Amino acid sequence: MDLFLTDDGQVVLNEVNTLPGLTSYSRYPRMMAAAGIPLSDLIDRLVSMTLHGKKQ
């Protein structure tokens, strides 16, 4: 989700991104790396879940 904080402290929703960036400098892969999941493993998991369902 992309949010903005206005000058008066109100949080405004800008957009919901259902397809996060997967480049090495994007936040999603960096968050996964911080959780111990490298980008290559993340992509392998996403492809496997797409092909075989969420059974893993």
Description:
Keywords: ATP-binding, Ligase, Nucleotide-binding. This is D-alanine-D-alanine ligase-like ATP-grasp enzyme. Residues 1-48 form the ATP-grasp domain. It comes from Amycolatopsis endophytica. This protein is of the alpha+beta class and 56 residues long. It has one domain. It contains 2 helices and 2 strands; from the N terminus they run ββαα. It has helices spanning 27-34, 39-52, and strands at 2-5, 11-15. It has a two-stranded antiparallel sheet. The longest helix is centred in the last third of the chain and has 14 residues, at 39-52. The mean pLDDT is 86.
Task: Please report the distance between the alpha carbons of the first and last residues.
Answer: 26 Å
- If you average the pLDDT, what whole number results? 86
The number of helical elements comes to 2
Structural category: alpha+beta
Strand order of the largest sheet: 1-2
Based on Cα principal axes, name the global outline: elongated
Secondary structure tally: strands: 2
The percent range for helix content is 25-40%
Q: Main sheet, how many strands, which sense, barrel?
A: 2 strands, antiparallel
**How many discrete domains?**
1
Low-confidence stretches: none
Element-by-element helix/strand order: EEHH
Taking all Cα atoms into account, the compactness measure Rg is: 15 Å
What share of residues are in beta strands?
15-25%
Keywords: ATP-binding, Ligase, Nucleotide-binding
Domain ATP-grasp: 1-48
Organism: Amycolatopsis endophytica
GO molecular function: ATP binding; D-alanine-D-alanine ligase activity; metal ion binding
